[in-house]
Amino acid sequence: MGLAVNKRSVLLYVLAGACCAVLGPPLRAAEPAEVVTPAMKEIDLDAFLHGMLAVTLPIKMAIPAEYEYTALRNTSRFSAYWMRPDAARKAQRSGAMPTDTGWMSAEVSGSVVFDAPTGTFVGLDLSSPTIAKGGFKVLESQVVTANEHPVVFVELLHAATNKPLYMMYVATLAGDNVVLISYRAPRHNRLVGDAVWAALKKRVSDQ
Predict the structure, then answer these.
(1) DSSP 8-state code for residue 22
(2) Quick one: pLDDT at residue 25?
(3) Hey, is 186 helix, strand or coil?
(4) What are the Cα distances from residue 174, in Å, to 12, 25, 54, 56?
(5) What is the pTM of this model?
(6) What is the SS3 string spanning 72-124?
């Protein structure tokens, strides 16, 4: 399966308000430390999406065990957020996303679609200079199939701040609709983020 690309998707998503937490002041270099992978739990993708789709996606994924679904104010019914319950309460009061403990989100992509005849994600540009112009670089991308649903994993790093962004695009195979799952690590810690994302990727890929 090929991976088609157009500059609209990743950059628009990254620069949109949903991703503003990736930007900000540069992170100081962290002292070397042993990173313990957070406890993970298995969840059906349908449950993670919390009823946002009328179709079933028979895919299991792994997320941090302490994350729970939360309904944030002023968000679309075609989006879902998962975070620690205490962080959710703070987010509800302040309107700010919980960078200290991280969070995950899901939405129906407005800029990436899946073209079944060619097997490509149209609108997902990982090679365009537009990514670099936005200050990001692609650390890794991987295309897999999970229970017959094409999936693309993308890992980005903001060059100026060293803040990672993790994304998973899933073709619903209901028309050309694509679901986007994203993850922001606690305090933008890349070691923790990489560990969580590796566990998620493994669970999704083993189907």
Answers:
(1) G
(2) 53
(3) helix
(4) 23, 41, 9, 10
(5) 0.83
(6) CCCCCCCEEEEECHHHHHHHHHHCCCCCCCCEEEEEECCCCEEECCCCEEECC
